[in-house]
Amino acid sequence: MPDRKISQAPQKQESRSLRITPFEAGCERVISSHELAAKLAERRPLRIKLGFDPSSPDLHLGHAVVLDKVRQFQDSGHLAVIIIGDYTARIGDPTGRSKTRVPLEPEKVEHNAKTYTDQVFKILDPARTEIRRNSEWFDKFTYADVLRLNSRITVARLLERDDFRKRYTEGAPITLTEFQYPLMQGWDSVMIRADVELGGSDQLFNNLVGRELQKDLGQPPQCVMVLPILEGTDGVEKMSKSLGNAIGLTISPFEMFSKIMAISDELMARWYPLLLGEKLDPNLHPMEAKKELARRITARYHSASAAHTARTDWEQQFSQRQVPVNLEEIPATSASNWAALLKHHGLCPSTSEARRLIAQGGLTLDGQKITDPNAPPTPGILKCGKRLYRRVI
After folding, report:
1. Please, are residues 58 and 115 in contact by the beta-carbon 8 Å criterion?
2. Looking at the whole model, is its pTM more than 0.85?
3. In this structure, what DSSP letter does residue 325 have?
């Protein structure tokens, strides 16, 4: 690869005011508008690449931001090529983090990858989607292939990546294995001959590496389109299941509605354009605006009737202080004690957290506090914390 700088800084020609295609709405950066317009003018289905590292199961609203853009391309006749990074997940991707992500065992990777392929069609059109795993080509790599790929980029270029540079400056460890990740993601683009690669803004450097590899190997370089990162429910960190601030696409309608209603008004205003593609109406009362956000998102991933029921139940529980009517049922026999039951059904992330909740008086059954985490579960209306209800049967 020629010794060219992979700049992550905005460039004048990428100003939002100069964007010339409808696909660029909502993007943080497009490299470049004129190249994208030229590809669209070819009047052929473009190959739109989006990669997922199956580091944790289940898609969430953060993934939906980019998937919505992929669907926009599909609706115009283009092909989505979804890369499941089952091979790269064995390395440990540091993207957006200040330390190394722990590599995953193959069994865990496979489990997580299946949830992605099962859930991606909540948004994408299956008829215009190609699912690929990068183990298809990396399983065949020899050590000589690895060395040849490494020869196409310098260490100086890799240190231009924001999180690598920050860790290097702070003296934090960076392994040579981690340096492989941008190259491997870039090689994915070469193997599928991507026309456009989409991603969050934290993926910009990796996407640009793919563009440069394609140039170096005589392929037309992919356009790069990055979208803003969706903040999680805490309003601070990137939405991530591992950080506990995510809203999964497959959680129950009531839980989805309730979690959205729990976000701050400031975060709501930022979610409107990212998740609904429109600005928050300043004439709406914040509570009504949040209910509308929660209703529309819940309806999208479940149904209009499920969203209506979720809103009714939420209003009964929080506005009228009543127990919701349509409660999820959990069997009392599904665990040997209360702490295990909370962990088993996802009401607490661990049994130790469940025991802490019970010790603090945060678990009640039919209005009576449960004080013994080791007691066997019995039927009744279970309230966990301030807002989660279940019917134990």
Report:
1. yes
2. no
3. S
